[in-house]
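S.,

Sequence below, as promised.
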Amino acid sequence: MDVMLVLAALGVGAPPAEDSFERHANIAYRTDKDADKERHLLDVYTPKGKKDFPVVLFVHGGSWKSGNKNLYAALGQSLAADGIGCVVCNYRLSPAVQHPAHVEDVAKAFAWTCENIGRYGGKKELLFLCGHSAGGHLVSLLVTDPQYLKAEKHSPAEVKGVAAFSGVYQIVNTERVFETPFGKDEKVCKLASPLTHANGKHPPFLIAYADNDFPRLDEMASNMHAALKKAESPVELLKCKDRNHITIIVQFVNNSDPLNRAFREFVQKNSK
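The prediction came back faster than expected:
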């Protein structure tokens, strides 16, 4: 089941008042001759009339093979209405590309955010990452393996915190779900796994998973939490009750949702 289709069908979350946020749509974060005119775009949601607010770059899921920023308007609007700027990016998808193209695109989207968010009122010193499912994998890999940000002349040190919801932290070369986006090479898959790199000091993490999540995602979340804790890197683990892989992100747009509250507290705490 594609979470983006579910979000679109439900039209989830009552939209906040239009005078509480601004949307700047379809901005190209890559403009060279090889840029993809659809996949190298992002949307910026900002709190209306505010400046120097924290900003989160949100990365969608979809098994690295599907998904679109346009279906997360409710998420961007709700965060902006609460005073948190939100950048929602597309990235190239498999089978047209394979790892590391996905994470390289997210690195470019982060670089664009660092270099441009000030023009929209956001504070580049208060940048966060957030992702669901495959997006949780991508934001986690981006900060635990610094090579991708380094290629964009940036660093994980610029990230104030990472929130991964129902994320994938271990890519296994023998499992079919990973074959198209990552291939079958064991070494490639191991190096594409955030868990492989979770052995040093990293930005604070908020790791969340659903009590009825996809198989092994609860185990992966626990293993990632344990690895970061062992490395003495700040990390929180949250099991979301009465949620599954889809509803964990569908319900996130509601202010009363426990994960929504935990995320806002995470941003507030790490913005000090």
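Residues 70 and 238 are 27 Å apart (CA to CA).

Coffee later?
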